[in-house]
Design goal:
Elements lengths: L3 H4 L4 H15 L4 H12 L5 H13 L4 H24 L4 E2 L2 E2 L1 H27 L3 H25 L6 H26 L4 H25 L13 H4 L5 H8 L3 H13 L4 H14 L1 H20 L6 H15 L3
Helix pairs in contact: 2-5, 4-5, 4-8, 4-15, 5-6, 5-7, 5-8, 7-8, 8-9, 9-14, 9-15, 11-13, 11-14, 14-15
Length: 324
C-alpha cells in the first residue's frame, strides 16, 4: 500500500496552492475570529477531502479556479460541522488537541462555525459556482438528516443493518461523495460522469466508515481512540449490530441493557468487545467494507485511465487499510 504522501504526488502542487487559498478564505478583519480560524487552520487533518476533489478533477479534466473553490467550499462547510459537533457533544478535544469550545466557550464556537458556513456559501456565489453549491448543500442536508436519524434510532440501541447503512450513507459517505462529484463538475464534465463520481464517492465513504467501526474493536490501534469508545458512547457500529443479530431475544435484551446501563464500566465493555469478536462480527464487517471498496474500484475501471485515476485507486485502498 502506498503512503498518503506518495498518493498525493500527481496533485502535490494543487494541494500546496489550495493550502494558501484555503487560509485566505478563513481570514477575517475581526482579531478574535482570525485567531480562532488560524488555530483551526494549523490543526487541519490529512487533507483527504481535498485529495478526492483534486484527483477526481484531474482524472476528468484540467484543474482550474473552480476546482480550488470546490475544495475550499467543502473544507469550510465540513470544518463548520465539526466545530458545531463539538459544542453539541460537549467535547473538549478533537484529534488530541483542545476543541474550539474548550478554549473559547460555546457561544464563540457556534459563531465561528456559522462564520465558516457563510464563507463557504459566499465563496461559491462569488465564483458563480451554483452547480457546486447545489451538490455540497445536498450533502450538508444529508449529514444533518443522518445525525438526527442516528439520534432517533439510538435511543433504543436496536438499529437494523439497513438503518445503519442509511445513517452512514448520509453522515459520512455523502461528504466524500460530494468531494468526488464537485471535482468532476468543476472541470466541466458531463452530468452523467458527475453522477458516476458521486456514486463512486458514496461507496468509498461507506467503506471508510466501516473501517472506523473496526478500530473500536482492535487492540493496539493508532487512532488515538481507546478501544471500546463507541460502546461507551452507545454508538451502534456494524460489528456490534451483527453480534446482536446473532443472539436469542432474551440474550439480546440483556446485552442491550449492559450497553445502556454499564457502558462506563471497563469490565462490562471488555465483555461486549469479546462477544463481538467471538460472534464473527469483526470478519463480517471487514467483508462488508471490502465489498464496498471493490464496488468503488470497479467503477474506476470505467473512468479515464491516467495518473490521477491510479492515485484514486490507491487512495481508496488507503482508506480501508489505514491504521489511524
Amino acid at each position: 500500500m502506498l503512503t498518503l504522501e506518495e498518493i498525493k504526488k500527481p496533485i502535490l502542487a494543487n494541494l500546496q496552492e489550495f493550502d494558501k487559498k484555503f487560509r485566505v478564505s478563513m481570514k477575517s478583519s475581526v482579531p478574535l475570529l482570525d485567531t480562532v480560524t488560524r488555530y483551526l487552520y494549523k490543526r487541519k487533518g490529512k487533507q483527504m477531502r481535498p485529495m478526492f476533489v483534486f484527483l477526481s478533477a484531474k482524472m476528468c479534466g484540467e484543474v482550474n479556479d473552480s476546482t480550488y473553490r470546490a475544495a475550499s467550499l467543502i473544507e469550510l462547510l465540513h470544518t463548520a460541522t465539526l466545530v458545531h459537533d463539538d459544542v453539541v457533544d460537549d467535547s473538549n478535544e478533537r484529534r488530541g488537541v483542545f476543541s474550539i469550545n474548550a478554549l473559547w466557550k460555546n457561544k464563540i464556537a457556534v459563531l465561528v462555525g456559522d462564520f465558516l458556513l457563510s464563507r463557504g456559501l459566499l465563496l461559491a456565489l462569488e465564483g458563480n459556482d451554483f452547480h457546486l453549491l447545489k451538490i455540497v448543500s445536498g450533502a450538508v442536508r444529508e449529514v444533518i438528516e443522518g445525525e438526527l436519524l442516528q439520534i432517533e434510532k439510538a435511543r433504543r440501541l436496536d438499529i437494523s443493518e439497513d438503518i445503519y447503512f442509511e445513517i452512514i450513507r448520509k453522515k459520512t459517505a455523502s461528504l466524500i461523495s460530494s468531494c468526488c462529484a464537485c471535482g468532476a463538475a468543476s472541470v466541466g464534465t458531463s452530468d452523467e460522469m458527475t453522477l458516476q463520481m458521486k456514486k463512486f464517492g458514496e461507496y468509498v465513504g461507506i467503506s471508510f466508515q466501516i473501517k472506523d467501526d473496526l478500530f473500536d474493536f482492535e487492540s493496539g490501534n493508532r487512532t488515538g481512540k481507546p478501544t471500546g469508545i463507541d460502546i461507551k458512547e452507545q454508538k451502534m457500529t456494524l460489528p456490534l449490530i451483527y453480534m446482536l443479530s446473532q443472539l436469542a431475544p432474551g440474550e439480546k435484551r440483556r446485552t442491550i441493557r449492559i450497553i445502556k446501563n454499564h457502558h462506563d464500566d471497563p469490565v462490562r465493555v471488555a465483555e461486549i468487545i469479546d462477544q463481538v469478536n467471538h460472534s464473527g462480527g469483526i470478519s463480517y464487517a471487514r467483508n462488508k467494507m471490502l465489498e464496498y471498496r471493490q464496488k468503488a474500484l470497479d467503477m474506476l475501471q470505467n473512468m479515464p485511465g491516467n495518473e490521477a485515476r491510479n492515485a484514486l485507486e490507491q487512495l481508496v485502498i488507503f482508506t480501508t487499510e489505514r491504521n489511524k
